[in-house]
Design a protein that fits this description.
The structure holds two protein chains of two kinds. Chain A is α+β, with helices and mostly antiparallel strands. Chain A contains 13 helices and ten strands. Chain B is α+β, with helices and mostly antiparallel strands. The chains are: A alpha+beta, B alpha+beta.
Chain lengths: 342, 203
């Protein structure tokens, strides 16, 4: 008898109400305090494959062969008991009800991703009912995913060099600050390798800029091929100048890698008739290693790498030179004299 | 005078711990692990006194789940976590199926549900123990700069009194501190205290 009196309440409000809920593009189920279905809109009928005639006046749990999930039952009970509205998020529940994306004629589909809201309704006769609203969460999930892949692509664009695909200066500034801060906090070593293509201006003059671009691309490939850890990154720092950040690398290790990088570029064997050190393209390499617990700051450390590169060029190019940070005080004007090893 | 006696404070702490216990069992059911939730302390503040330092929310960004409820007294109930905590909680609740970097996608919804569970549990235990009926809106989640969000919370509510519950949530051995805040008018606070006193004299 309960359900009839309740239904008549709806009918009294005109069948406008019925037309509205059947037009709504989300699911509406109304149940009474026993869990008996009083309203089952078209959307729910379509996506569950259960027509309203079969659902009305039946217990909600009995309509589905597998019954209701534990969390759904708890939520329903709790709404009736405490009269407080409840959310079942898609994030934590995925697909509480056996609903399917397409009109549920064929059952070989995956369940629809759902977001569910259950609100208490008290009738004028003080009867406690529950309104269950179901929305298809897959649309917003898809939108989130599209936005995420867009933003990933954009941030990749914003941090890489268009020509070589290496990371760019902007990326370096952020990553270097972060890695240096981490090295200081955790008293971990950190190394920087700075490389410069030898006589690159002469190469461009002799072979043309398009050929010069190809050299830069090949150099980045050669450098990347020598780095195994995902945290070791190649950055195009300026025209023909590159930097490799090596977190947690001590001086011995970083010198070995620096030498591997130098050899890898040399082994490309790209003819360079205008080079004064070889008949092919080579690089000069400067390595700096941050020794934990020294007073060196980030700018001073970067300066040390630059100084090491300068030494490599000064000493005849196509070679590796190395500096560790306590020595850098000599070269870095920012460092107080007291910290200088002299 | 807006202040609480020790007895009133104890009664409220007890009521909210009943709620915390209920919330913990619902959360455990979802997470499939033991979830512990407790309310070690309840304090009363004037809204004007509230800032990030008072609540020791040392993070640039804050997440807040809000439900407004009404009944014998009205209040805005809010669950506050720093955003990095919120993301960790969501990650713990979702389990290993989702990487920590993908959690932000679900933050909004999952935090709404977490807030809903904890707020409902506290409201329902208050309603049960004090024998009253409360209605509540659906939860709304907002994230923003800590100071700005706190200022907005205080000014929007236009309610001078804040009942602040310290919350300790433990999922899989990770402890997260948060706050449950009730913003009330002075008259709503007085009405709440009338019910609390009635409860105290009844035991």
């Amino acid at each position: 008898m309960n359900s009839i009196s309740v239904k008549s309440e709806f009918i009294l409000s005109g069948n406008i109400g019925e037309k509205i809920w059947d037009s709504i593009k989300s699911g509406l189920i109304l149940v009474d305090s026993e869990g008996k279905v009083l309203l089952w809109n078209d959307w729910i009928a379509q996506h569950s494959g259960i027509p309203a005639e079969s659902a009305l006046n039946h217990l909600l749990g009995s309509l589905f062969p597998d019954g209701l999930t534990a969390s759904f039952k708890t939520a329903l009970k709790s709404v009736l008991q405490h009269k407080l509205p409840i959310i079942l998020s898609n994030a934590l529940h995925r697909s509480p009800l056996p609903l399917y994306p397409l009109p549920a004629t064929q059952r070989k589909q995956d369940r629809m991703q759902q977001s569910i809201i259950i609100t208490p309704i008290v009738t004028s006769e003080k009867k406690r009912l529950c309104l269950i609203q179901v929305t298809d969460a897959s649309i917003s999930l898809k939108r989130e995913r599209v936005l995420k892949s867009h933003s990933e692509r954009l941030s990749k664009k914003a941090t890489t060099d268009g020509l070589t695909g290496a990371y760019n200066r902007r990326f370096f500034d952020e990553r270097f600050t972060a890695e240096f801060g981490r090295a200081q906090r955790q008293s971990a070593p950190l190394s920087l390798i700075m490389l410069d293509v030898d006589f690159f201006k002469n190469y461009n003059d002799r072979y043309g800029h398009p050929a010069g671009d190809k050299v830069l691309i090949s150099v980045v490939k050669a450098l990347s091929s020598q780095l195994n850890r995902p945290t070791d990154v190649v950055v195009r720092y300026g025209g023909e100048e590159f930097i490799v950040i090596l977190p947690d690398s001590k001086s011995e290790g970083s010198q070995i890698i620096a030498e591997k990088l130098r050899v890898a570029v040399s082994n490309l064997n790209i003819p360079h008739s205008e080079s004064k050190v070889a008949d092919h393209v080579t690089v000069s390499v400067g390595v700096a290693t941050y020794q934990p617990d020294t007073d060196c700051n980030a700018a001073c450390f970067l300066e040390a790498a630059d100084t090491a590169l300068y030494s490599a060029k000064h000493d005849g190019r196509n070679c590796v030179r190395h500096l560790v940070t306590p020595e850098c005080g000599r070269y870095c004007p920012d460092t107080p004299q007291a910290n200088s090893p002299d | 005078m807006n202040s609480l006696s020790e007895l009133q404070m104890d009664a409220l702490t007890e009521i909210f711990n009943i709620g915390a216990g209920r919330a913990a069992s619902s959360l455990s059911e979802i997470v499939g692990e033991e979830v512990k939730l407790s309310v070690p302390r309840v304090q009363l503040y004037q809204s004007s006194e509230i800032n990030a330092d008072v609540l020791s929310l040392n993070s640039p960004r804050l997440g807040a789940v809000k439900q407004s409820f009404s009944g014998p007294f009205d209040a805005d109930a809010m669950l506050l976590f720093t955003e990095d905590r919120a993301l960790e909680i969501v990650h713990d609740m979702m389990g290993s199926q989702v990487g920590i970097e993908d959690v932000a996608e679900y933050e909004q919804e999952a935090m709404c549900e977490l807030g809903n569970i904890i707020l409902n549990a506290c409201l329902s235990s208050m309603a049960d123990v004090l024998d009253l009926t409360l209605d509540s809106s659906l939860p709304v989640y907002s994230v923003g700069a800590t100071d700005a969000l706190l200022r907005q919370i205080v000014s929007e509510a236009n309610q001078p009194v804040m009942l602040v519950l310290h919350i300790d949530l433990a999922i899989e051995k990770r402890h997260s501190q948060g706050y449950l805040v009730f913003l009330l008018s002075s008259s709503s606070l007085q009405k709440l205290l009338v019910h609390v006193d009635r409860f105290i004299s009844g035991i």
